[in-house]
Design a protein that fits this description.
The complex is a heterodimer of chains A (340) and B (679). With 340 residues, chain A is an all-alpha fold. Chain A has helices at 3-11, 18-39, 46-53, 62-93, 106-121, 125-147, 153-178, 181-192, 200-213, 217-227, 231-236, 241-263, 269-280, 287-307, 316-338. The longest helix of chain A is centred in the N-terminal third of the chain and has 32 residues, at 62-93. Chain B is α/β, with parallel strands linked by helices. Chain B folds into three domains: 4-228, P-loop containing nucleotide triphosphate hydrolases (Rossmann fold, 3-Layer(aba) Sandwich), CATH 3.40.50.300; 343-521, Translation factors (Elongation Factor Tu (Ef-tu), domain 3, Beta Barrel), CATH 2.40.30; 531-672, Nucleotide-binding domain of ferredoxin-NADP reductase (FNR) module (Rossmann fold, 3-Layer(aba) Sandwich), CATH 3.40.50.80. Chain B has a seven-stranded antiparallel beta sheet with strand order 18-16-23-14-15-20-19. The chains are: A mainly alpha (340), B alpha/beta (679). The A-B interface holds A 1-2, 4-5, 8-9, 12, 92, 95, 219, 222, 225-226, 228-230, 232-233, 235-240, 278, 282-285 and B 47, 50-52, 71-77, 79-92, 97, 100-101, 103-104, 106, 108, 131-136, 153, 156, 162. The complex binds flavin-adenine dinucleotide. The site of flavin-adenine dinucleotide (FAD) has 25 residues of chain B, from β18, β20, α17 and β29.
């Protein structure tokens, strides 16, 4: 090996291995949860906490821990991971940070369906979740059908998605103005996205869905690695481009849909997790890291949401929204500058 | 060895077929290059061959089996593809990217192994990218990046490799670098390579098998030496060109001709010491040492040397000159009646004895003859040759049956002209009237006088000269037919067609001591015009080229030259902003394209039109030749039209009557008349 190349190798940007990033993210998740438990709004004394965790009945602690905090944390982690992975799939497949499902209308599909279900049919609980899932899927397939013309599917998908998103937002606004104040309030809360309604039952449902979907990330990642070389290159390498893309879309939508069904749309988690993971991994994209970062985002946002205001607990969606909006602006400004 | 072929392949986008029932076999183990104009379907064909496009008809066979019925991964193990615009994911390193080429060889249970690792190393080694292995792809130069992409396709380890325009966006050095890598791959691994390329010369150099495509169909296929011809390039690219052997590779080299060419004027180049022709094979001293054209020494024969010195002095010859025996050159009986003077002192027009020193073909229908001789020291009309008109005294054709060879130079030139040569003694009252005297001679004796243009005048000592004397180039249009095995045409044409080195010719032209650019033989008089139009047929081409060369910067306009074939298009150079358009006539009637081009160039009413609707008097071009020249005008626009008289008449009618141009702005000259000999 020549001297030049060795020098280049050592002087190149320092790269943290993906495993390290994932370890740190996992550590961060645990830290955020524990912090919330011991230093949050209703702090639990450490001995009591440990005893309760060990299964002892500690009055005033066990119930809060097992029926409120832990299901909340579990839903947060699971939904965050689902949002994060889903966003990264879309962003990498379409090679555009704007392409996350919450920006291109898939999230709005779930919201619109859920709001319709709540306001018109009084849907609740599991029923509501299923309606939200169906809405997300229907909208995703609609956008895909609009965009898939054989050529330039990626950019067309984003444009079609943004258009559909705007349409759905108008629909949601319309439905809200028609509804009576109390149900509209419920719907609005759902639309903001929160973990407060988390129960073990919901966490279990989410976990069951993710037990099927998350393992699919392994083959998905392998195909994404090829698809991101461009459609022609991918086809040249023997990848069936269209079925693969459709499969990835379904996987991404599935992840977003099940998570949205449980927590409501947690604004910008999908949008933020992928690019953040990319940064942390030194420019290499990894679906696993994106999922972990998504989970970390949600639990961290939840900690902030419940503790930042002395009097009220904010829905977690408000915090993720507040984090995501500036980033969206930054992405838009940057792409504008690059002229691409 | 995997074999790829297309059978009646039709490829279409949105029902528009781009490739049309095309059949093609790609020779195994060879480099096939597909060329064609933009939009001819070459990239589409490649996409079809790489199964990126489903055929609308016919099929692509890989080893005899329809490529679309075979599993994609299996095909990908046999056939690799480098598309036109592959995308490198952000931050990916060279090694990672090359590794992705192993995808078809991996599977659910077959993960990355040492074989994959070895394939990646081999691919990087062959493409010279091993040293770049750990660098991010987006930091590389264009050429390096393209080599990395090729390495990725190589890591696929296929027997067939298809590449779509692998050299676009690369500079020349990198284009060669990439093609070298590909041809090395072909030679070392025996990989069958198919490349779509837009550079015809590189294609001719690197292809074993060249396929030329036009409108989705194969126009020619085979070895480049057989396929790349001037006709093929014209047909496929719509571009007239010359094809010569590539001095580097021996493969065909295409030199485009184009229609608008603006080169540097000869004089500008000469001032910088750049010469277009090879230096003549003369001793360097003589060419460097030779001074300006007027002061000439040893090469002039004794009889004219004395007179040369006399001509530099404006005063009448000193006593010494008179001591010479006047009767040596002048046998005129009236010599005693009027005082004799040196011809160059009193006659604007002189007769120059010259000899053919070079003969060259400058187009299918053009022959350039170079005349030289010591007399030419006195030839010229100021600094700018422009459309400098001369008369060639074509000797009478040898009497029927007379041996041509013994008497190649023809009979002696008529005595009438002996006294008009520089240095000869001439009676003042004899200086004019020579034409009438010549006409009075019997036809068999006087020969024919024909008008031509000086294409170039090189004073003695010019680096391009063959000898020590000044030289004149004349471009002859050879309008010849063969009748009964004999060449037939006008006398000047037949003479030019048969001219050989050493032939003598008498030329009548301006005396440099007495003529400047207002000399009657120069009709290009733009006055203060800043915009000009030059239009003419092939007989006017020498004049137009010569005018272009002497035009200063700051003049704009158009030069339109109609010539018989694309092969007659010549290098024209100018410092001015005049755009030059050559119109190869092909099978169109004479003058049709030129008239159309003039109409397209000069709108109605023309900018700067003065009179509108004036009907020019009708000239019967069969009776008198149409000739109207302008005196210096102050108009901003000047037109100069020359060529066949009937054609000129029509253009004149358009410019004067329809476009409303002032006659003062326009020079019209019938250079020849259809069906009529000159004179
Ligand atoms: C000022 C001036 C400058 C000229 N400069 C040049 C020049 O630089 N180069 C040049 O080649 N010509 C030039 N010409 C035109 C040339 O003088 C004529 O083409 C001339 O007729 C040729 O003489 P010839 O002996 O070959 O034919 P002629 O004996 O004059 O004519 C014989 C027959 O040939 C026909 N004919 C003549 N010329 C052509 C032609 N070009 N194409 C087809 N048929 C023809 C005639 O109509 C006639 O039927 C110039 C003419 C003028 C007036």
């Amino acid at each position: 090996m020549s001297e030049r190349s060795t020098r280049l190798r050592t002087s190149g940007p320092k790269r943290v291995s993906i495993a390290t990033v994932n370890m740190l993210a996992a550590l961060g998740i645990v830290t955020a949860i524990v912090l919330d438990l011991v230093a949050g709004r209703h702090p639990i004394e450490l001995p009591g906490l440990l005893a309760a965790l060990a299964g002892e009945r500690v009055p005033g602690v066990s119930f809060i821990l097992w029926e409120d905090r832990l299901p909340q944390a579990a839903v947060g982690v699971l939904a965050g991971a689902a949002f994060g992975a889903s966003g990264a799939i879309f962003q990498r497949m379409l090679r555009n940070p704007l392409a996350s499902p919450d920006v291109i209308g898939v999230g709005y599909g779930a919201s619109a369906a859920a709001v319709t279900g709540m306001l018109l049919f009084g849907a609740q609980g599991i029923g509501l979740s299923l309606i939200a899932c169906a809405g997300a899927l229907a909208v995703a397939l609609f956008i895909y059908a609009m965009a898939d013309a054989g050529k330039h599917t990626g950019p067309r998908l984003i444009l079609a998605g943004i258009a559909v998103a705007a349409l759905l937002q108008a629909l949601i606004q319309y439905l809200l103005t028609r509804a009576d104040v109390r149900t509209a309030g419920d719907a609005l809360r759902w639309l903001t996205g929160s973990l407060s309604a988390s129960t073990w039952e919901r966490a279990g449902l989410l976990a069951a869905a993710l037990a099927i979907l998350l393992p699919l990330l392994v083959p998905a990642a392998a195909k994404l690695r090829i698809l991101e070389l461009g459609d022609d290159s991918a086809a040249g390498l023997g990848l069936a481009v269209r079925p693969t893309r459709l499969g990835l879309i379904l996987l991404g939508v599935g992840l977003t849909a099940v998570a949205t069904a449980v927590t409501g749309p947690l604004a910008f988690v999908s949008f933020l997790a992928g690019p953040l993971a990319l940064r942390l991994c030194g420019g290499r994209s990894n679906l696993g890291s994106a999922a972990l970062i998504g989970a970390l985002l949600v639990v961290a946002a939840n900690f902030i949401a419940s503790n930042i205001m002395p009097t009220v607990e904010l829905p977690v969606g408000v915090v993720t929204g507040a984090l995501g909006a500036p980033f969206l602006i930054w992405v838009l400004v940057r792409t504008n500058k690059e002229g691409t | 060895m995997a074999l790829l072929e297309a059978q009646d392949l039709t490829l279409a986008y949105d029902a528009v077929s781009i490739v049309d029932e095309l059949s093609l076999q790609l020779p195994a183990g060879e480099v096939t290059i597909i060329v064609g104009a933009n939009g001819c379907g070459k990239s589409t064909l490649l996409r079809g061959l790489a199964r990126l496009l489903k055929p609308a008809g016919g099929k692509v066979l890989l080893d005899g089996q329809d490529i679309h019925t075979r599993p994609a991964r299996e095909v990908a193990k046999l056939l690799g593809l480098l598309p036109q615009t592959p995308v490198a994911p952000d931050g990916i390193t060279v090694r990672e990217l090359v590794g992705r080429g192993r995808y078809p060889h991996q599977g659910w249970f077959k993960r990355w192994n040492t074989e994959d690792e070895a394939a990646v190393e081999r691919a990087m080694k062959l493409t010279g990218t091993t040293d770049l292995a750990e660098r991010p792809v987006d930091e590389l130069s264009g050429g390096q990046r393209q080599r990395v992409w090729i390495a990725m396709a190589l890591a696929q380890e296929t027997e067939l490799l298809l590449l779509d325009e692998p050299t676009t966006y690369l500079d020349v050095a990198h284009q060669l670098e990439v093609l070298d890598v590909i041809s090395e791959l072909n030679r070392t691994r025996g990989t069958t390579v198919v490349i779509v390329l837009h550079d015809l010369n590189l294609a001719a150099r690197y292809a074993d098998h060249l396929v030329a495509l036009k409108q989705g169909k194969i126009v020619a296929a085979g070895h480049p030496a057989a396929v790349v011809t001037e006709d093929m390039v014209k047909n496929v690219f719509g571009m007239p060109c010359r094809v010569i052997p590539d001095p580097v590779a021996g493969t065909p080299l295409v030199l485009p001709i184009g229609r608008h060419r603006v080169l540097r004027a000869e004089s500008v180049l000469a001032a910088k010491g750049i010469y277009r022709t090879k230096p003549p094979e003369v001793e360097p001293e003589s060419s460097i040492g030779a001074p300006s054209p007027v002061t000439v020494e040893s090469s002039i024969p004794a009889s004219t040397q004395e007179s040369t010195q006399a001509s530099t002095a404006p005063e009448p010859a000193a006593g010494g000159a008179a001591a010479q025996e006047p009767a040596v050159d002048s046998t005129d009986g009236q010599a005693e009646a009027t005082p004799l003077r040196r011809a160059e002192e009193i006659s604007e027009m002189l007769a120059f004895a010259t000899r053919v020193v070079d003969v060259a073909s400058v187009g299918e229908n053009f022959k350039r003859i170079t005349f030289a001789g010591p007399d030419l020291v006195h030839f010229g009309a100021g600094p700018a040759p422009l459309d400098l008109r001369i008369k060639l005294m074509i000797p009478p054709a040898p009497v029927h049956g007379a041996a041509l060879l013994e008497n190649a130079t023809g009979p002696e030139l008529p005595q009438e002209f002996a006294s008009l040569r520089p240095g000869a003694w001439l009676a003042e009252d004899q200086a004019a009237g020579w034409y009438r005297r010549w006409l009075a001679l019997p036809v068999e004796q006087r020969g024919s006088m024909r008008t031509y243009t000086v294409r170039a005048l090189r004073p003695a000592g010019h680096r391009d000269n063959r000898g020590d004397d000044p030289e004149i180039d004349v471009d002859f249009v050879l309008h010849l037919r063969t009748e009964g095995g004999r060449l037939t045409g006008g006398p000047a044409t037949v003479w030019a067609a048969q001219a050989q080195l050493g032939d003598d010719l008498l030329i009548l032209g301006p005396n440099s001591a007495l003529c400047d650019e207002t000399y009657g033989g120069i009709e290009f008089r733009p006055g203060s015009a800043k915009r000009i139009l030059l239009a003419g047929d092939e007989t006017a081409a020498p004049a137009i080229c010569s005018i272009l060369e002497s035009l200063p910067a700051g003049i704009t306009g158009h030069a339109l030259i109609e010539v018989p074939t694309t092969d007659d298009i010549q290098g024209s150079s100018t410092r001015s902003g005049v755009s030059v358009q050559w119109l190869p006539r092909g099978s169109h009637p004479h003058g049709e394209m030129l008239a159309a081009a003039v109409r397209a160039t000069v709108a109605i009413p023309a900018a700067g039109a003065v009179v509108t609707g004036a009907e020019p008097e009708d000239v019967d071009v069969d009776e008198t030749i149409l000739w109207e020249t302008a005196t210096a005008s102050t108009q901003p626009f000047f037109a100069w039209l020359a060529g066949e008289a009937g054609m000129i008449k029509e253009m004149r009618r358009y410019l004067v009557r329809d476009a409303g141009m002032d006659r003062k702005q326009v020079a019209f000259m019938g250079y020849w008349r259809r069906g009529k000999a000159e004179g």
